[in-house]
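Whether sequence alone determines local backbone shape is best considered at the level of individual chains. We regard such an encoding as a compact summary of how the chain folds. The sequence in question and its structure tokens are set out directly beneath this paragraph.
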Amino acid sequence: MDVGMMMVFASYGWENTGDDQVWDEEIRLARLAADSGFDVLWSAEHHFFDYSFCPDNLQLMTYLAALCPGIGLGTAAVIVPWHDPLRVAEQAAVLDLLCKGKLRLGLGRGLARLCGVSRNHGRVTRAL
């Protein structure tokens, strides 16, 4: 069995808490989890500041690969319709190299299906 930590990046319900403070705290907790022997750090892709805001979890995990070497890293999930799928594959491949094969890649479609999102030459467009 693995033990992991989900990085939430949420400030909902916390008064006078800046985005930078939320990020600093999540990174501090990630380092603590890595130092305490946890097996994996997880982060979902979210774009809403008070709910959960990590708009690029592949970028975050790349940073954590250097900051916390040896721990597994997981995306729960990369919302593919918001990205160029080829870039997601490339970024995931590089990240997997950096973390020595410890990437757990989760992909999803999120709410894109409800927003009328379609692909147009690698750019997200919204159907009218």
